[in-house]
């Protein structure tokens, strides 16, 4: 299962973590995994202010940490990533889960 977690504070996004594999089909044929990968990697590539992000991308794992205040553009990118992953999780709940946390 793919688990996506978005962590927010009062000042905005703190981190995005996406871990695991969907395992909805054989390796190389898993369209759920491909969809999640496309949304996440495409979203990371859309961020404009790269200096405030620390990203670690490995097979099956993505960890993005925000080290500053996001621009309006990057906030929209974040909302788009979360919305698209939520749609995938809703349609394929056996393979993808999404959690949104608010921390102090």
Please give a structural write-up.
A five-stranded mixed β-sheet has the order 3-4-2-1-5, covered by helices on one side. It has helices spanning 31-46, 72-91; strands at 2-9, 12-19, 53-58, 61-66, 96-102. It is of the alpha+beta class and 104 residues long. The protein has two helices and five strands, in the order ββαββαβ.
SSE ordering: EEHEEHE
How many distinct beta strands? 5
Share in helix:
25-40%
Note the beta-strand portion: 25-35%
Coarse shape: globular
Radius of gyration: 13 Å
* Largest sheet features: 5 strands, mixed
Offer a concise description of the structure.
The protein has 104 residues and is of the alpha+beta class. The protein contains two helices and five strands.
What is the secondary structure topology, with strand pairs?
Elements: E1 2-9, E2 12-19, H1 31-46, E3 53-58, E4 61-66, H2 72-91, E5 96-102
Helix pairs in contact: 1-2
Features:
104 residues; alpha+beta; five-stranded mixed sheet; 2 helices; globular
């Amino acid at each position: 299962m793919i688990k996506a977690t978005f962590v927010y504070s009062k000042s905005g996004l703190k981190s995005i973590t996406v871990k695991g594999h969907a395992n909805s089909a054989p390796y190389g044929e898993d369209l759920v995994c491909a969809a999640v990968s496309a949304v996440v990697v495409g979203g990371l590539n859309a961020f404009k202010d790269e200096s405030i992000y620390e990203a670690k991308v490995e097979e099956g794992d993505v960890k993005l940490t925000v080290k500053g205040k996001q621009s309006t553009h990057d906030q929209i990118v974040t909302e788009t990533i979360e919305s698209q992953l939520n749609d995938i999780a809703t349609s394929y709940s056996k393979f993808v889960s999404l959690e949104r946390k608010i921390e102090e």
